Amino acid sequence: MNDPGPHPVSPPRPGAPGSWARHPLHGPHDPAGPPPLRRTASIRRSTTHDSLRPDGPLGPVMMAARGRDLITGSDGRTKVLATAGVDAVVDFADGRRLARLSVDPPAEGASQLVGTSVSSGFRQAVEEAIPGVASDDPLRWQLIDDLPTATLVGGYAIGAAGVRPPRSALSPSLQHPDLCAGWAVGGTILNEMGVTGYPPVVTGPLAPDLRRDDDPLAWHDAVEPLPPHGMRRRRRLDLWRDGERIVLECFLRDSHFGTDGHETVVHEYTVRGALDPATMRFTEAAAEVGALPWVECPEAVASAGRLVGAPAAGLRAWVRNTFVGPTTCTHLNDTLRSLEAVDGLASHLPA
Question: Where are the beta strands (DSSP E) in 92-229?
Fold first, then answer.
């Protein structure tokens, strides 16, 4: 098989810090900067999943997930509604097997998940091992629920390092033709895989700083750089009232830290929407792209509008079961699924 070689991000060129040879079919490159100032009478949920590979691209993944729900009152004072943390070790090369798991607050039954694959079927295994976790501690559930996708996205670090392990070392493979817009038949990924046997490597834009010097509480923790081969998934959900509506803004960014010291964006979405507080059904929903891997990926953006009329309750299962095929995006779907949290958070909105 003809193999022209990998497409890792190249080092910055002299005189042009942070620039590199980008794949000619890369997607949008317009990532966002710092989040908006927190509104009075609002709630902000922020989470991070940091994935480190201290033993190299094919070594175990050390994952640290943290989250916080913060209420900003009508008088501007803040109150922490909830915090949570998850620490895990995932053997990516051994079927993404969960080698270690620690949950804070502790969850009885969490130890039963050790040895399972953080892949297809993991969320069902969580529900069986920790019954009621989704309703008992929604923030902790968000961190656990994100482990499969954060692990999957973290595999980008392998290709970005120019490593091409045997396909068996990357199993189980969850991607397939027409899985989503990026994996559409005739698109960049499948065309290049037909030549090399491996998907092309994303060459995303530099990641703008997400810190706000005027608001140390903008995020639940410091936005510090990660070591080489590190991956970071950041989420932010803002919720507030606007007249007779409940309004939301939800942000997702997946980023990679290269050996050149630069952080680049792999995926970035912002979803904005509104709900009727009487029914908790969506009356508005739209997505905006900051950065996506390939030219085909933005075809999925319009799918966010399908939320209009849907209830926030049960959104995770509904999106998972109905948002399928090349008109959707797995990472946008993952963002939309997370909006089920609105159903519970809305009851805590200050008057």
Answer: 97-104
The tally of domains found in the chain comes to 1
The residue behind tokens 């209009």 is: 308
> In this structure, what token pair is assigned to residue 148?
């499969």
Q: What is the rounded CA–CA span in Å between residue 332 and residue 269? A: 7
Task: State the residue range of the domain holding 212.
Answer: 42-348
Over the stretch 198-249, which tens digit does the pLDDT of each residue have?
Answer: 888 889 999 999 999 999 999 998 778 999 999 999 999 999 999 999 999 9
* CA 235 to each of CA 99, 126, 195: distance values in angstroms, whole numbers, following the listed order: 25, 21, 35
CB 109 within 8 A of CB 129: yes
In a domain, 189, yes or no: yes
- In sequence order, what are the residues at sequence separation of 6 or more whose Cβ sits closer than 8 angstroms to the Cβ of residue 93? 58, 165, 169, 170
Is 51 part of a structural domain of the chain? yes
Within a domain: 15: no
pTM for this entry: 0.91
In degrees, rounded to 5, the angle at the alpha carbon of residue 102 between the alpha carbons of residues 98 and 104 is: 140
Query: Would 290 be classed as within a structural domain?
Result: yes
Compute CA distances 54 → 6, 51, 139, 226, whole Å: 22, 10, 28, 11
Pairing of strands 97-104, 245-257: unpaired
The H or E element spanning position 61 is strand 61-72
Q: Is 172 exposed, middle or buried (0-12, 13-18, 19+ CB in 10 A)?
A: exposed
